[in-house]
Each structure stands twice: as C-alpha cells, then as structure tokens.
C-alpha cells in the first residue's frame, strides 16, 4: 500500500500535464483562427482599396475624355439651342473607358451605361435618333457624370484623397 501515494502523485502530475497540453492546444487553435481571420480581413480590405483605386482611374479618364471629346454638343441650328448627344463620340471615346474596367464601377453607373447601349442599338435598328431618344441619352449620360462627381464629393468629405 505504500505505492498509493506515488500513484496519486503520478495521476496528479499526468492530469496537470494533460490539462496544460489541452489548454495550450485550445489557446493555440484560437490564436491561429484569429490570425486567419485578420489575414482574411486584410485581404478583403486590400481588394476593396484596389477596386476603389481602379474605379477612380476610370472616373478620372472619363472626366478627362468628356472634356475633350464633345459627347454633348450645343446645336445652334435648332430654335432653342438644343444640346445633342453625339453617339459616335460616345462610342469611340467614352464607352471604351467605361467597359475597360466595367466590373469596378458602381452598379447604378453600370445600369445607365447598359441602358445607353440598349438605346443606341434600338436607334440603330430604326436608323433614327429622334428628340426623345436624344433627351434620353442626355439624361442618362448627365446622370453618369453627376454620379461620378458625387463619388468625388464623398471622397472629399470622408477625408480620403
């Protein structure tokens, strides 16, 4: 019976060692999961920043080309100085910029660009652009430009430049 204290000591030591090992494994596992989550968040944030940078590259190029390509021209031959949407200039100068990185554009801008495309196809089918079509083009294109300018304003307000 003199061995009972030795067994109790041995069992206590083993129990302490097992509890210590299990505790270390659990702690290490939680730490590893936390590290994975931090890395995932970092990757997502980097991707968002990259997409935001790409989006503003498109917006910068769009505004630059808009200033020189005369997509909207004043038609002084009309009685009230009507603005005309120049489909050819849009197709050659603006549309390629928008579709170069279409996936990073805001969804409402994507929708407007696609609506302009639909309207152009419809006008090509009928081989005519009437005043209502022209007004529709102007409204959609101006809405895109307004939205781009709103994005720049939001960026200024948030303090990110």
Can you put this structure into words, describing what you see?
There is one protein chain. The protein is mainly alpha-helical. It has one domain (4-158). The protein is 80% helix and 5% strand. The chain is built from 4 helices and 2 strands. It has helices at 4-69, 87-100, 107-126, 131-158, and strands at residues 72-75, 82-85. It has a two-stranded antiparallel ribbon with strand order 1-2. Strand 1 (72-75) and strand 2 (82-85) form a beta hairpin. Helix 1 (4-69) packs antiparallel against helix 2 (87-100) and helix 3 (107-126) packs antiparallel against helix 4 (131-158). 9% of the residues are buried.
Shape: rod-shaped
How many DSSP H or I helices?
A: 4
Bin the strand percentage.
under 5%
The largest sheet has its strands arranged as 1-2
Query: Averaged pLDDT, please?
Result: 89
**Biggest β-sheet, characterized?**
2 strands, antiparallel
- Cα end-to-end separation: 81 Å
Are there runs of 5+ residues with pLDDT below 50, and where? Answer: none
Task: Specify Rg, calculated over alpha carbons.
Answer: 32 Å
Total domain units: 1
* SSE pattern: HEEHHH
Helix content: over 70%
Number of strands: 2
Structural class comes to: mainly alpha
Keywords: Membrane, Transmembrane, Transmembrane helix
Transmembrane segments: 6-26
């Amino acid at each position: 019976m003199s061995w009972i204290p030795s067994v109790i000591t041995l069992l206590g030591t083993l129990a302490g060692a097992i509890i210590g090992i299990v505790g270390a494994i659990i702690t290490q596992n939680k730490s590893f999961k936390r590290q994975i989550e931090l890395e995932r968040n970092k990757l997502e944030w980097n991707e968002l920043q990259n997409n935001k940078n790409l989006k503003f590259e498109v917006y910068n190029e769009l505004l630059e080309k808009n200033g020189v390509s005369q997509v909207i021209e004043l038609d002084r031959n009309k009685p009230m100085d009507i603005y005309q949407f120049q489909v050819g200039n849009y197709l050659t100068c603006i549309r390629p910029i928008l579709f170069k990185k279409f996936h990073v554009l805001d969804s409402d801008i994507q929708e407007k660009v696609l609506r302009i495309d639909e309207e152009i196809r419809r006008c090509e089918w009928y081989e005519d652009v009437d005043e209502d079509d022209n007004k529709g083009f102007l409204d959609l294109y101006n809405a895109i430009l307004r939205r781009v300018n709103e994005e720049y304003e939001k960026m200024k307000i948030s303090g990110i430049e």
